[in-house]
Write a structure and sequence with these properties.
The chain is α/β, with parallel strands linked by helices. The chain is built from eleven helices and seven strands. It has a seven-stranded mixed sheet with strand order 3-4-2-5-1-6-7, with helices on both faces.
Length: 258
């Protein structure tokens, strides 16, 4: 089971959109996926029609069975909804939270939509996960936040002696007409070329889809947003061979030689 956190310390970079559509795309590729909203803002529940009222807080802190917290979003895709109370993890023992997360099984992928700040619950999720996907807006502040997030990820892995890899860098809000976007995309590609996925272009359909409670693939499969996120899905699937063995390398960023 691949364990992926979609994370960035900066808000407004498309984390929720990326987590949701990555999960939806993988489920359409015959992978069984659990999407977990760990963001206290709980934006995914605003984007989907949900049945269960139980939340990730109830599962982790109240001992509610995972099966009771599951919302089915379609074939092969389940969701555990978010809850602002997860911020109380600041006063909880990480081992207890990890113990609950380790009860998750019977999925090919578990994907966490993390909040924008480095809260205690985010750090525990990083201890649970083996991969980090970092969406980043294609502007100056997005680029700077990306470099800081990658540095934090490296330091976190070393300090905790934990094997978590930078899996993908996902450039978002890319506008080919904007010179700054192109410049920043070039910088991101130069420094993180091993991890970068195809950019997610600015597309109104990505904003409309949550209003209709749909993933971009269901709302408008022919849109550029669907094509771009499908490219991300295929890129993640191509990496499966790297996670088929027990050996997982620690995160490392190798800059392209000039």
């Amino acid at each position: 089971m691949r364990k992926i956190c979609v994370i960035n310390q900066k808000g407004g970079v498309g984390k929720t959109t990326s987590a949701l559509n990555l999960a939806a795309g993988l489920s359409r590729s015959e992978k069984k996926v659990l999407l977990v909203d760990i963001d206290p803002q709980s934006n995914i529940e605003l984007s989907m029609t949900l049945e269960s009222s139980w939340t990730i807080y109830d599962f982790i802190f109240e001992g509610v069975a995972l099966s009771e917290c599951i919302n089915s979003l379609g074939k092969n895709l389940d969701l555990v909804r978010g809850d602002g109370r997860v911020l109380r993890a600041e006063h909880s023992e990480p081992e207890k939270i990890l113990g609950r997360l380790k009860l998750i099984d019977n999925y090919d992928y578990v994907i966490f939509d993390c909040g924008p700040s480095m809260t205690a619950i985010n750090k525990v999720v990083m201890l649970y996960c083996k991969e980090a996907v970092i969406p980043t807006s294609t502007d100056y502040l997005g680029y700077e936040s990306l470099t800081r997030m990658v540095k934090f990820l490296e330091e976190f892995a070393d300090f905790n002696d934990h094997d978590i890899k930078l899996s993908k860098v996902v450039p978002t809000f890319f506008d080919v007409r904007n010179k700054i976007c192109s410049l920043m995309l070039d910088k991101i590609n130069n420094e993180f070329y091993q991890y970068i996925s195809a950019p997610i272009r600015v597309n109104s359909k990505l904003k409309e889809a949550p209003m209709k409670k749909m993933s971009i693939f269901k709302y408008d499969p022919k849109s550029s947003g669907a094509k771009d996120y499908w490219a991300l899905v295929q890129s993640v699937l191509c990496d499966e061979i790297n996670y088929s063995s027990s050996k997982v390398e620690k995160v490392a960023v190798v800059k392209k030689e000039s």
